[in-house]
Amino acid sequence: MGWVFVSGGTRGIGAGIVRALATAGHPVAFTYAASDAAARALEDELSGTAQWCRGYRCDMADRNAVEQLARELLSTRGAPYALVNNVGITRDALLLNMDDGHWGDVLRTNLDSAYHASRAFVNSMIEAGDGCIINMSSVTGIKGNPGQANYAATKAALIGMTRSLAVELGRFNIRVNAVAPGVIATEMTANLNEMQLKKLASGIPLRRLGSVEEIAANVAFLLSPASRYTTGQTFVIDGGLTA
After folding, report:
1. Has 151 been annotated as catalytic?
2. Boundaries of each Ketoreductase domain copy (predicted)?
3. Cα dist. 220→27, 28, 59, 60 in Å?
4. Active-site residue among 32, 56, 115, 151?
């Protein structure tokens, strides 16, 4: 199997994706922003798999840093089979209280990062004549959420980027899809008490939060031969929240 590049791979959904893909047999290169300890722990956890898995510290919002890492990986590993553009942050504030920092940080991290990674690797994928790109969006980019105009803008933009790249790259046998998770049980929800979790789940038709493993399984499917004729689509995994 070809190797996979996963941005933002040490926490939450990103770490789940790294685990799922490594377990499925893909060599994985993942990036992280801060914690060397978390990256090394994930490497150690997956060292029992037959495939290569390694973390790289990289600011995905920095084009030069992304291009430098891409050159290193391309020279040692060749063209990736897939990119999973997962890195993302929130800087929540109502529009009346949102400043340029709130806006710019989220756009650079969530949207520019996907652009930088895609630009850095896509030529090699075209030359290989195969591959796929998965952009991690969110239901917030579909239904909106108060206080998240910046985050919603980036996640909606990733869906538009997905559709356009699917049209551009299809003739090279490169598939491009998006995954839009709903409310998922991660570190961000771990601090909520039982009452808060019940209230959150009550608005979801399936009456529960999604799991990281359920999102990661969808990503693994999109990299598998079973999805060879699937491109330009957004897979909403939200328990019916946007139904």
Report:
1. yes
2. 2-182
3. 13, 12, 25, 22
4. 151
